[in-house]
Amino acid sequence: MCDPAPDRPPAPRIQVTSAATARAYARSVVQEQWNSATRTAREEDVIDLLLVVSELVTNAIRHGDGLAGFEVVPTDAGVRLAVHDNSDVVPEVAYGPGDLPTAHRGSGYGWPLIIRLAREIVIDRRAGGGKTVSVLVPLHVG
Fold it and tell me: Which residue, among 123, 116, 121, has the nearest Cα to 89 in the 3D structure?
């Protein structure tokens, strides 16, 4: 697990109710806490981060019996996300190879996208029910 960036407190937890508010918050964490006078995240990495945020939050809302929490913590390596939902069910494809579906059925692209763009994917069951999906999305200096 990566440590938070030196001299930077963890981002505060906020109430997120949609993928749009989660994306806005994640971008603000990068701009206010990861970027500095000596480093700025590449825009393509921020776009990857926002795609992962959208997929994780949307999955929690659509398949996880609702979003129960959202955290964003900057680290030296990038941004660690934690998305909490209310379902104990772990998707079968969560630890798969990230292959895209062979036929378009309206869904099935989210987990492969997460697997391709994020690192250190961990799914833990929460003591009170539900689960937490945490990932590290790497950021590089642009």
Answer: 123
Q: What is the DSSP letter of 92?
A: G
By mean pLDDT, which of 12-16, 63-67, 88-92, 120-124 is the weakest?
12-16
User: Which has the closest alpha carbon to 126: 60, 53, 75, 52?
Assistant: 60
Tokens 């969560």: give the residue. 94
The rounded distance, in Å, linking the Cα atoms of 33 and 72 is: 10
The token pair at 67 is 């979003």
Cβ neighbour number for residue 41 with a 10 Å cutoff? 21
Residue carrying the six token digits 């206010």: 32
Residue 137 CA, distance from chain mean position = 7
Poorest-pLDDT segment among 11-15, 113-117, 132-136: 11-15
Structure tokens at 118: 């994020």
Is the pLDDT at 4 greater than 50? The verdict is: no
